[in-house]
Amino acid sequence: MSRSPLHSAAHRTAAAVGGRGLRPMVALLLITSGCARGDASPADSAARPIPVDLAAVQLQSLAPPVVATGTLGGKEEVTLSFTIGGVVARVLVDEGAAVRRGQLLAELTPVEISSEVAKAEQGRLKAERDLARVRRLHDDSVATTEQLQDATTGLEVAEQNLRIARFNLEHAVVRAPSDGVVLRRMAEPNQVVSPGAAILLVRSAQRGTVLRAGLPDRDAVRVHLGDDADVTFDALPGEHYRARVTQKASAASAGSGTYSVELTLDGRGEALASGLIGQVEIRTRSQGSYPIVPLEALVEADGDSAEVFVVAAGADRGTRRRVHIARILGDRVALSSGATPGELVVVRGAAYLDEGTRIAIRRDGAPTGTAMPAKSATDTVVR
């Protein structure tokens, strides 16, 4: 079965855009006006002009969004650990558990730590007795001033040792620093851990949930603190989350060369799991003016570029021209280059044209003496 030129052109356009184009361009919707060849012979088609509709290129001011991909996480994710080493006695929470501020999460076996506290207490008592004895002897001129000073220092050292021992006993347990959720559990009972070893990773609910993304320099300069954004996740199709830019790096990362930005999600984002990959569309405040053409004017597409037919005033033929696409706006297209406001482009019938093809411009109906062919079932390509 042979295909009409419109059918072939539309499928080439849809395939090119669907494979590579701009992120907002998930596909081109090319809807033609019903200009099929019907049963006309090649000689008839070459002899008579192709009926077309024209549209003027318009200039419109818009702010194209910045599109990026990022990872969801808590603004504050805290790794909890013991200040001293020892044997883990209990870990009271599992991954995914919600915790409250001050809640006991894990503790070390207290035998060794309690013994250190008891030893420090006895050391302080001895230092107190020594100081009292030396002070009496000093009053009787038996002990020297140096001996009195040494005894005084000995008591101060003993008090500091006791303070350290009590601090270690107090921190032989892990408590939740704030309300949040346990993201990771890295220790088990009877496990020997060193001082500072990670025991639990907790995401705090205190400062919200953020999406972290890296932007190239051309996008980073357009993004400002407070810009609104829309966030979606492949894992949650159909769900949209509002977000706002709350942090932006002032220097590029050494590895990727991108600028890190953080977007704080609305309250619903707190229920999401850390690590989800999200797509963000940031609505920037930087304005720009772009030539706008109807989507129907595009007859070929290759990545972010396409072709249109431009018709000069009074001409009966169109000229093929390559244009570059900035953004799809529903049934219109914003161009970054290739067209000038005020120029006329072919809309209906463009898929039938080649360089040098004669055209007949429709006005209130079909041109005089030109029959409009019936619309084919394959004339519409939808995404």
Task: Looking at this protein, list some descriptive labels.
383 residues, alpha+beta, conserved putative lor/sdh protein from methanococcus maripaludis s2 fold, Elongation Factor Tu (Ef-tu), domain 3, Helix Hairpins, six-stranded antiparallel beta barrel, 5 helices, disordered N terminus, disordered C terminus
Description:
The protein is α+β, with helices and mostly antiparallel strands and about 375 residues long. The chain folds into three domains: about 5-60 and about 290-380, conserved putative lor/sdh protein from methanococcus maripaludis s2 fold; about 65-75 and about 205-285, Efflux pump adaptor protein, beta barrel domain (Elongation Factor Tu (Ef-tu), domain 3); about 110-170, Helix Hairpins (Orthogonal Bundle), CATH 1.10.287.470. The protein is about 20% helix and about 35% strand. The chain has helices at about 5-20, 40-45, 110-140, 145-170, 215-220, and strands at about 30, 50, 55, 60, 65-75, 75-80, 85-90, 100, 105-110, 175, 180-185, 190-195, 200-205, 210-215, 230-235, 235-250, 260-265, 275-285, 290-295, 300, 305-310, 320-330, 330-335, 345, 360, 380. Strands 3, 4, 19, 20, 21, 22, 23 and 24 form an eight-stranded antiparallel sheet that branches. It has a six-stranded antiparallel barrel with strand order 5-14-17-16-15-18. Strand 21 (about 305-310) and strand 22 (about 320-330) form a beta hairpin. Helix 3 packs antiparallel against helix 4. The protein is rod-shaped.
